[in-house]
Each structure stands twice: as structure tokens, then as C-alpha cells.
Design a protein that fits this description.
Number of strands: 9
Largest sheet: 9 strands, mixed
Strand content: 15-25%
Number of helices: 12
Shape: globular
Order of helices and strands: HEEEEHHEHEHEHHHHHEHEH
CATH class of the largest domain: Alpha Beta
Structural class: alpha/beta
Mean pLDDT: 92
Helix content: 25-40%
Low-confidence stretches: 3-30
CATH architecture of the largest domain: 3-Layer(aba) Sandwich
Radius of gyration: 20 Å
Distance between the termini: 25 Å
CATH superfamily of the largest domain: Alpha/Beta hydrolase fold, catalytic domain
Number of domains: 2
Length: about 425
């Protein structure tokens, strides 16, 4: 749910120099930025065939764009695809992925799907918008630039990178199944558009909000997209159990605004009207957060609690059937079957419970569950690291993990020592 400002210098230095040199060489006076997604017809399906009859992963529209560094345009070309995917309740939906190919590698022999921690409740947060130079707001500028550097880092290794708006066009933040479906269908759409075979190796990487899509994609792939040749999934800062996360961040100074944000995203995904459950203060907070990039409001409501958000009859929050159902549906490890590819899983532990946002025990329990199912797992707990700091440890390790998976190096993991 959060970036890791200023703590990845050794990782980001080479891509930073590359992007800065590109940006400095590019004229900037003529740019006005892309149209916001809500005003851009590209984000809407306009075909005559009913969407339910279109197979998931089908490319519906395509266009060429120029990438930006922040809001500064660069000469780097990319393509955006509107594709058919599936919503949280199984309904047909659409969303967009941005596909970037390295210029120095002939053909996409390896694909990395980068799953952003964009944590969007408003469309200005969408990666497809910010990668094209859209402005998510001053509070998010540095985080979007960090992610752009990381994407270029993957490109520098010769990977084709696809970056989906996996929350969908309705911004259903933290909806697990929908995020997983969106991630898997982005790979399908990317491979179809590039005319590469399904045997093309694919690696996934996501931190924090991106880990929602990464983990659910790994769980859902065997049943939903078994034809994809996924070779490994890296996920860090994982919200494995939302109820435990809510309890952990309830009343805290920094991360408590994530609670109303998650409720907004989930009730959107399930078509539930949240307003009847909210206190007057809760309604005020939800209205204020309804269209934000969630990281921009961290710290805005110090000490915010679930109980303050709810009317008195709903303050025993976890016993309210509506919310119990929403949270139970998001518990990772509950999809039928289990992942079939190696997993690299990481989480910080700054206070003996978690990284300030995610509960470390829940992540280790999820890793252990996968191990019991025969999934090869490398689990790392970054002692003393906050959510931001743990990202600085996690991201460099994804490089070695994915490179080894693409090379076909045998993977053992550390299941024998995972508690």
C-alpha cells in the first residue's frame, strides 16, 4: 500500500540516469498530458458482440503511446491494450495494460508482469494514465517515479514488461479475485498482441497493493489460465488477511486511513452501498477518500478507528455479516487448489507484529500453507524493517529470483525452516 521513498538508491541509480537523460533530451513545451481515463473513450468497450461472449484476455483496442518520467514525456514507445477480463463476482469487465518492450532485445522471449502498488480509488492513479504522463497529484509524484524506475530496471534486463490496471475501470481496490483475474488476462492480452506463443515464460512481481494481484494470480492461474507458462511469482508486503490487518492498523497514526479505503474498494466490487453503515463522521471520511490515491491520505486521520466510522449497531465490525463476508473472501490461500509455480514472499517486521501495515505472522502462515501444499516457497522476514523499508530489501531480491526462474535454475526455497 505504500512506496519506499529514498531507500532504493543502489537499485535505481542506472535506470534513473537513463530516464533523466531521456527526459532532459526531450522537448517538454508542447505536452499537455493524456486525457484522464474518465474522459478517454479508449477505456470503454464499444464492440457489437456482448462482452460476456468475448473470451477473457481478448484485446479489444490497442494504441501507441510515449512513456513519461513523472509528467515529462520521453521518446520511449509503449502500447496500451484494452482487454476483456473478469470482475470480483465473475462478471465480464474490461481494463487496460501498458506493454513496454526493450529496444535492445529482438523479440519478447521473457515477460515480466509488474503489478503496481498504485492503490487507486480514483482513475488518476491508474498506471496506464501515470505511465503516459498523467498527473496523480503532487503527493503521489515521487511514488509513481519510483515505480517507473523499477519498470526501466526490468527493461534493462531485456524483459518485456506489462503493467496492468488490475483494479479494473471501476477502481475496485483490494478485491482479490478481480485483481488476480486482471493480472492473468493482461498476460494473455500481451502475448496475443505481441504474437508470441503461450510457452513464453512469464514472471510476476508485486509489492503491497501489487501483492494482492500477484498472490491471487498465482492461486487462480491453475483453474483460470492454465495455459500460461508462469515461472515464478514475487510478492512482498502481503495483506494475507484483511481482518488481521484492520485490527493491526486500527487507531494508528499513519495507516488507519487504509481501512475506509479498503471498504470503498470492496463495496464497489460487490455492488454494496456502504453509506447505510456509516456514522456521520464515517461518511465524511469516505466521501473524502472516494477518489484518492490511498497513499496520499496516510496520516490524515491520526487515530482513526473502525468504530468511529460505523454507526453504533455496526461497531462490532467483524460480526456484521456483510463485512465478514467481504473480508473472508479476501483471505489468501482460500482459492480451490493452490499455486503451482515457485513463490518468493517477503514481509517486514518492525515491532514484533508486522511492518506497520501488514501482519508478519499472517504472511508466514500463508507461506507455510503453500509449503504444506507442495508449493516451493522462499519466505523472507525483514527484521526491524517498516513497510517502506522492507520494500527496499524485497525489490532487489526479485531480480535474482526472476532471473533464476527464467534461466530454469532449480528452485528449492526454504520451506523446511518456515514456521
Amino acid at each position: 500500500m505504500l512506496g519506499y521513498t529514498g531507500r532504493r538508491l543502489s537499485l535505481a541509480l542506472a535506470p534513473l540516469l537513463l530516464l533523466v537523460s531521456i527526459a532532459m533530451a526531450t522537448p517538454t513545451s508542447a505536452t499537455t498530458g493524456p486525457r484522464p481515463p474518465g474522459q478517454d473513450a479508449f477505456y470503454r468497450y464499444s464492440g457489437s458482440l456482448p462482452l460476456r461472449e468475448v473470451p477473457p484476455g481478448t484485446v479489444l483496442k490497442a494504441r501507441s503511446i510515449r512513456l513519461a518520467f513523472g509528467t515529462t514525456p520521453t521518446p520511449v514507445a509503449a502500447e496500451q491494450l484494452l482487454y476483456r477480463t473478469t470482475g470480483q463476482l465473475g462478471q465480464p469487465t474490461v481494463t487496460v495494460t501498458t506493454v513496454i518492450q526493450p529496444t535492445h532485445v529482438p523479440g519478447p522471449s521473457r515477460i515480466v508482469e509488474y503489478l503496481s502498488f498504485y492503490d487507486g480509488l480514483g482513475a488518476q492513479c491508474d498506471p496506464s494514465y501515470t505511465l503516459a504522463g498523467g498527473n496523480p497529484g503532487a503527493a503521489m509524484e515521487q511514488e509513481t517515479q519510483e515505480e517507473e524506475l523499477l519498470i526501466v530496471w526490468y527493461l534493462s534486463h531485456g524483459y518485456t514488461v506489462t503493467v496492468p490496471d488490475f483494479e479494473g475501470t471501476h477502481l475496485d481496490w483490494m478485491a482479490g479475485h478481480e485483481s488476480g483475474y486482471g493480472a492473468l488476462d493482461a498476460v494473455r492480452a500481451t502475448e496475443s498482441h505481441l504474437h508470441v506463443p503461450r510457452v513464453t515464460p512469464v514472471g510476476l512481481s508485486g509489492y503491497s497493493g501489487g501483492a494482492v494481484a500477484a498472490d491471487w494470480a498465482s492461486e487462480l492461474a491453475p483453474a483460470y489460465a492454465p495455459e500460461l507458462h508462469m515461472v515464478g511469482v514475487a510478492e512482498g508486503g502481503i495483506p494475507a488477511n484483511y481482518a488481521d490487518m484492520f485490527t493491526y492498523i486500527n487507531g494508528t497514526t499513519e495507516f488507519s486511513p487504509a481501512i475506509p479505503g479498503v471498504l470503498i474498494g470492496l463495496t464497489r466490487a460487490y455492488g454494496i452501498d456502504l453509506r447505510p453503515y456509516l456514522s456521520p463522521y464515517g461518511l465524511k471520511v469516505v466521501q473524502a477518500e472516494d477518489q484518492v490515491c490511498i497513499a496520499s491520505v496516510f496520516g490524515h486521520y491520526p487515530g482513526l478507528t473502525i468504530q468511529q466510522l460505523m454507526k453504533p449497531q455496526y461497531r462490532d465490525f467483524f460480526q456484521v455479516p456483510t463485512f465478514a463476508r467481504l473480508l473472508n473472501d479476501q483471505v489468501m490461500g482460500t482459492a480451490p487448489g493452490h499455486p503451482t509455480v515457485p513463490l518468493f514472499m517477503g514481509v517486514g517486521n518492525v515491532d514484533g507484529t508486522g511492518d506497520g501495515a501488514m501482519v508478519a505472522r499472517d504472511v508466514e502462515m500463508l507461506a507455510h500453507e503453500y509449503c504444506e501444499q507442495g508449493v516451493p516457497v522462499q519466505f523472507e522476514e525483514y527484521k526491524g524493517a517498516s513497510h517502506e523499508e522492507a520494500g527496499a530489501f524485497f525489490e532487489p531480491e526479485t531480480d535474482a529470483f526472476l532471473m533464476a526462474r527464467f534461466a530454469g535454475v532449480p528452485f528449492a526455497g526454504n520451506c523446511s525452516s518456515t514456521g
